[in-house]
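Fill in residues.
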């Protein structure tokens, strides 16, 4: 029983829940995340997405099990390795998915529920068909992040900046194409030729992704992310400055665009992620990269701290 529970938790991929923190984006940047009612519904949305995404991962692993057994790394997944029965996995998956939909309807709201249903359908189409269509497979992965951000806005009733959405798209594409690049690197590391990648992996599109195309897409996405975030930071910077700060700062900084200070963190974070992909040859699992690469993790933590200080601390100083 304990071992079965452990295998279910492994298949749920708790590390992937980091992605679901994006449901707080709209509330954080609107300045309302510390409002108790907003924070509470944000937590509910986060929980719903955690179980929804875990349910989808279970379904995905059931579908992919035959080919996962041929993959050098994925063969160790619980279902592919035979440590978790597909029948039990189906039961858990349906419980998570339909339970989360009921939970969302009851405790969160209609628009959020529509968003998660759209997410579920998109992921199912991805597992059954879209994952085999080059370029579109990566776009769908990126769309998952965008749906999370919108769903968070629906749940907390906070508006979304157009530049925030574009930044999310750019970052999502960077992670998606970086993931594909790393998957190809893993195949090469295990001496699996591109010609037989279709037979040895669950991604038929890998053999159709030339390295030069992925490199171009990664470069484009990285540039798009930085530019979009810079414009987002300029647009959303608060002009609220306390009298204390006004008395200290020179007159030309009496109404500064504080959020622009966070741009260097984004530039370094993107550059560090590119280093991880190309030099360390990692990146197949973005959440694992974030947790294991200390410079990148520190950058994200510092960026978050500065953003929270700018939005919530500076305006409150007297």
């Amino acid at each position: 029983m304990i071992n079965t529970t452990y295998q279910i938790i492994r298949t749920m991929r708790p590390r992937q829940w980091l992605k679901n923190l994006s449901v707080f984006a709209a509330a954080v940047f609107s300045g309302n995340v510390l409002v108790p009612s907003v924070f509470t519904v944000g937590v509910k949305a986060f929980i719903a997405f955690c179980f929804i995404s875990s349910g989808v991962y279970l379904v995905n692993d059931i579908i992919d099990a035959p080919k996962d057994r041929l993959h050098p790394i994925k063969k160790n997944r619980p279902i592919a390795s035979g440590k978790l029965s597909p029948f039990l996995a189906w039961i858990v998956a349906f419980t998570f998915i339909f339970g989360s939909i009921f939970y969302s309807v009851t405790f969160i709201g209609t628009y959020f529920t529509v968003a998660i249903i759209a997410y579920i359908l998109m992921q199912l189409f991805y597992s059954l068909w879209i994952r085999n269509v080059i370029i579109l497979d990566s776009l769908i992965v990126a769309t998952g992040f965008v749906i999370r951000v919108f769903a968070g806005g629906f749940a907390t009733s906070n508006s979304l900046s157009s530049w925030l959405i574009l930044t999310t798209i750019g970052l999502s594409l960077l992670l998606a194409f970086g993931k594909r690049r790393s998957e190809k690197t893993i195949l090469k590391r295990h001496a699996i030729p591109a010609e037989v990648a279709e037979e040895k992996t669950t991604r038929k599109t890998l053999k159709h992704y030339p390295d030069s195309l992925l490199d171009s897409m990664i470069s484009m996405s990285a540039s798009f992310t930085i530019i979009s975030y810079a414009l987002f930071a300029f647009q959303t910077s608060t002009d609220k400055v306390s009298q204390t700060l006004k008395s200290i700062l020179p007159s030309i900084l009496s109404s500064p665009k504080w959020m622009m200070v966070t741009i260097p963190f984004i530039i370094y974070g993107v550059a560090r992620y590119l280093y991880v992909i190309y030099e360390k040859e990692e990146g197949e699992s973005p959440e694992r990269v974030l947790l294991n690469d200390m410079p990148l993790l520190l950058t994200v933590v510092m960026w978050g701290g500065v953003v929270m200080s700018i939005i919530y601390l500076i305006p409150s100083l007297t």
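The radius of gyration is 21 Å.
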